[in-house]
Amino acid sequence: MNTLTTYIAEYIEYCEYRKRLDQKTLKAYRIDLKQYTNYLKNTSEFHHKDNLDKYITHLHKQYKPKTVKRKIASLKAFFHYMEYKEILSENPFSKLEIRFREAKLLPKTIPFHALQTFLSTLYQQKELATSEYQLRCCIRDIAVVELLFATGIRISELCSLRPTDIDFVSNNILVYGKGAKERILQIGNPEVLLALSLYYETFKSDIAICGYFFVNRLKRKLSDQSVRYMIVHYAKLAGIEQHLTPHMFRHSFATLLLEQDVDIRYIQRMLGHSSISTTEIYTHVSNVKQKDILFNKHPRNMMVVNKG
Question: Which residue from 34, 38, 121, 139 has the least number of CB within 10 angstroms?
């Protein structure tokens, strides 16, 4: 009889080659499912409802709601696969009541003036470059940041871009998002296009060797961590005290578009969200604009009412 470990290995293989899930998702599945096997010890009873119920309680004692939600989602997906393959006659989750309140954390954004200062610092550093190496780094870093803000692309999506994913004729970018979902994004700003074109011309030979669009100094794929360090470095040079991350450019992209009255469903599509409820978190952030309107621009503030 197959063990739970064997079933998990088969499931991960199915996710990788049939569902074409990205490596980050696969890694999370491996961690979450291994944690479940370690908890059980007796793997022959892995599908019993009571064991699952106790394990979920155990998770709540150890982790924050957001982490628990992810770990439960990993288990749900695994048991759905087991039912689909007819290894189990019934999914144990169908008998479990799982509802818990998850605190909504508002996405952290970068103020418009800070974004402007950050970009200005990048371009200034390019002009101040004293060596070919520094100049090349600045050209690449400008292209990375301009693309992050221009499209709201995830950092993992940006680092995974291939040269063939960027069409300089139609100015389109093909993005492979979560769950192997594809979306096409357009680049409309001429400065962003210029930054990307200059980067490509400068790094063309390195890109050909690497196979990815964004490369590091060793002519290998640029990593998420390298981009994080790079953003912290330029934020310090720009005198920005706020801790900036690549994902904050995505949050700022969505929030600023919403404040420009762009329909939330367009933003959902551009961000690659499968559910509108995920995108709706940005409506809470845009309430800052609403407050400013009601406090400072409401016509009542300009009225002089005679009370005598």
Answer: 38
